[in-house]
Amino acid sequence: MNKELYINNTLNGKKELFSPVKEGHVGLYVCGPTVYSDVHLGNCRTFVFFDTVVRYLKHLGYKVRYVRNITDVGHLENDADEGEDKIAKKAKLEQLEPMEVVQKYTLNFHDVMRLFNTVSPDIEPTATGHIVEQIEMVEKIINAGFAYEKNGSVYFDVQSYVNSGNEYGELSGRQIDELITGSRELDGQSEKKSSNDFALWKNASENHIMKWNSPWGIGFPGWHLECSAMSTKYLGETFDIHGGGMDLKFPHHECEIAQCKSISGKSPVNYWMHGNMLTLNGKKMSKSTGNTILPDELFTGSSVHLEKAFSPSVVRFFMLQSHYGGVLDFSNDALLASEKGFKKLMQAYKLLKKAVSNASQSKDEINNKITDLCSSCYTNMNDDFNSPKVIANLFDLVSIINTLDQNNNWNNLSKNTLNNLKNTFTSFIEDIFGLQEINLGDNQLSEDLIKMIIEIRDRAKKDKNYEISDEIRDRLVNLGVSIKDGKNGTTFVVN
After folding, report:
1. pLDDT per residue over 383-438, tens digit each?
2. How do 153-156 and 198-203 pair as beta strands?
3. For residues 432 and 450, what is the distance between their CA atoms, to the nearest angstrom?
4. Residue 8: φ, ψ to 5°
5. % helix / strand / coil in the chain, to the nearest 5?
6. pLDDT computed for residue 296 by the predictor
7. What predicted TM-score, i.e. pTM, was given to this entire model?
8. Burial zone of 161 (CB within 10 Å; 0-12 exposed, 13-18 middle, 19+ buried)
9. Residues 6+ apart with CB under 8 A from 67
10. Ramachandran class of 464: left when φ > 0, alpha when ψ lies in -120 to 50, beta otherwise
11. How many Cβ atoms from other residues are within 10 Å of residue 200's Cβ?
């Protein structure tokens, strides 16, 4: 197995050989969700991809520390430094406490991630759980001469940072002169020296619920600050990989780099990776136009854009059929085609599992072809996690599997070749791509059994035995049954 992995580093736009900070270990940080609403498909694509990255790194033998945060404070509307906190705003709309909103949508996020069969991060820190670390980081940036306080708020001084020989815009490719030219003129009411400066700490108004004491008064941390504080706490001053959606390159990740370099003088991340956006029916997803779809709508088939429900594994497979760096377009037809391909792949996998060869040697032609294709799976995966090409290799192998099975010619393969083929399929389908084939059947007995189990869960919830209730839900999810609690009771869908 070839372990020479190349990653397209968005810091310089080059494909580079991966070399970890510590041999045999990988530190990976992925920006998690801001938990003020149901997780959207764009987020899901990002997390499914980085789940595949984690799985593959482990498959290569690396010990991975995977950190993915939860943003539960400090993310203001429109990613700006002014306006309302997204979570506080949602709390008012839903007439809940902010932490009730956080809990509600964090649970939704975890439920969706379980449906997509993603591995849990090793550490999942929250912004509210790391206020001390964020205050300490602000103090260090001030002491380094790259931040200033104004009326209880603290801002990063971008111009001072640039004047000291640093590059602001190295990740996004933006030039500071262009940023200044394209920015609005500051009016006399602004606290900032420049519109390019960004908040490290914001002064909280009297009616602001989520606020903490600090050396500069009562307030809350800036959105960009949390990821810098938490990533470096758990992964060190310089770690291996930082990932997220393309929309985070600027300003979020650009600001992360500036914050860390202003303190340590070193770049915090060796390899930056960004997943591209999603479209629906060839158009940008938009709530206002109705051109949007949620994961739950995919799994239940309740969206106007779909003619049926799709299994989480099919959706995951569909995502992996496109390279993470390219735009992925969701459509009913594309999902139907992906479902057809998924079933074909899993059927061949079933045939392969039952295959037996008693031959010590094989025909050179078929042996070489299978060996080359198995090797190509790793070659392509090592080329910036090129899952579409790997899947193409697997389908070439599917054709061979089907031919061998139809003609009962498994003895044309040596035991070694057959084992290599089985190991390659198991590794990529289950271990790396995280695909599951679960078929409970459509018969009435299966449906009645599920209903009975849900009734038991409902009784557990009524008795406030939430541990049992959650365990039943989680085990149903693992079996391919997604459940949804509503005002009119619990509904389920067999995926």
Report:
1. 999 999 999 999 999 999 999 999 888 989 999 999 999 999 999 999 999 999 86
2. antiparallel
3. 30
4. -75, 105
5. 50, 15, 35
6. 86
7. 0.87
8. buried
9. 27, 28, 29, 30, 121, 122, 123, 124, 125, 230, 231, 234, 235
10. left
11. 29
Amino acid identity, residue 66? Y
Query: Are 116 and 315 within 8 A, CB to CB?
Result: yes
**Which candidate, 435, 433, 368, places its Cα nearest to that of 400?**
368
CA angle 343, 344, 346 (to 5 degrees): 65
Cα dihedral 252, 255, 261, 262 sign: negative
**Residue whose entry in the numeric block shows the structure tokens 């005002």:** 487
Whether 283 and 476 have beta carbons less than 8 Å apart is answered as no
Kindly tell me if the per-residue pLDDT of 186 is higher than 50: no
Q: Mean pLDDT throughout 248-269? A: 96
Q: Any idea what DSSP says for residue 38?
A: P
Q: For residue 7, how many C-alpha atoms fall within 13 Å in the half-sphere facing its CB?
A: 22
Q: Which domains does the chain have, with CATH numbers?
A: 22-275 (3.40.50.620), 279-432 (1.10.730), 444-494 (no CATH)
Look-up of token digits 């591209």: 276
Alpha helices in 184-293 (DSSP H): 223-235, 254-264
- Which two three-digit tokens encode residue 396? 């070439």
| Residue whose structure tokens are 């709390």 | 91
Does the pLDDT of residue 311 top 60, yes or no?
Answer: yes
Q: Are the beta carbons of 422 and 306 closer than 8 angstroms?
A: no
Peptide bond into 388 cis (omega under 30): no
Query: Is-contact 105 37, C-beta < 8 A?
Result: yes
Query: Measuring CA to CA, which residue among 10, 55, 6, 75 is closest to residue 246?
Result: 10
Decide if pLDDT at 91 tops 80. Answer: yes
| Chain center to CA of 23 | 25
Task: Give the pairing of strands 269-275 and 239-245.
Answer: parallel
Q: Is 205 exposed, middle or buried (0-12, 13-18, 19+ CB in 10 A)?
A: exposed
Question: How far is 169 from 257, CA to CA, in rounded Å?
Answer: 9
Largest pairwise CA distance in the chain: 84
Q: What average pLDDT does the segment 224-247 reach?
A: 97
Contact 273, 241 (CB under 8 A): yes
Q: Tell me the pairing of strands 239-245 and 25-30.
A: parallel
